[in-house]
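Subject: for your reference before the review

Hello V.,

The reviewers asked for a structural picture of the protein, and I figured it would be easier to keep everything in one thread rather than splitting it across files. Below is the amino acid sequence we used in the manuscript, unchanged from the supplementary table.
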Amino acid sequence: MTKNDIIILGSGMSILDLSAAEIEYINQCSVRIAVNKFMAFYKKVNIMPTHVYYVDAYEKSVVLFLQHIFNVCRKDKLENLTFILGKHLNQKKVISNLLYFYLKKNYLKFKKIDNVNLFLVPKNCFFEFISHQDWLHGNEWSHTLKQPLFHYRGSLSTVLNYVSIKYPNHPIKLVGVDFNSPDYFFQKELEKLNFAWQDWTTPIIQKEKNHFSAIPYEGTTIFDKFEFIIENLHKSGNEIFSCNPNGLLVSKNLVKYNKIIS
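And here is what came back from the structure prediction:
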């Protein structure tokens, strides 16, 4: 039976503690959104996303990681995934039944890079292109994907605005959204990749030993706007829960804790 919950899949260590029953429940939910790097390592936790959110592909290493995600999906012959990507990737051309995306290089912080000006993507998948507001100053909650979505100190803020538009009146459960550690549940596998995956936030994360969204940057953290986020989710009929009782959203009393199977 398909479950009504919207599952947002973060890359925190707590996801390794899920029981077999919890994983089975998650995989029965109709919407399972993998945020950023998660999709490349979905097999480690036996959770199959339905959506892949990967919008901020500007920096070289981030672009290369997006292609790595596509490669994983192609190798595993995954189909019917919905990729949520930045509008700057929206030029497309169909060649020999393969869909390629051409990056507009003026959006990138680099000029000449081999093999990053086009993507070879998995077959029979869907693509949505969105834009978002400034990551330090965005303060408008959008009500259509045609508008730049709310974005503040991290991808989670934009994913939640996306869910409020696409899936109103559904409960939201955050799984692996911990904000209390610098490490990913796939940290060892990440370190073994044969390309540079680090971005400009990596040295900050290593120094502060926490998730970047939780680290004060120019006087801000993602938590500053959570009351605003919750208020707007309430308007769209979305009640949000964290499934990690030890996550910072729960310890800061910003989001209620709830079990995955409730």
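For the response letter, the relevant points are probably these. Confidence is low (pLDDT under 50) at residues 92-97, 103-115. The chain has one domain: 3-257.

Happy to draft the paragraph if you're swamped.

O.
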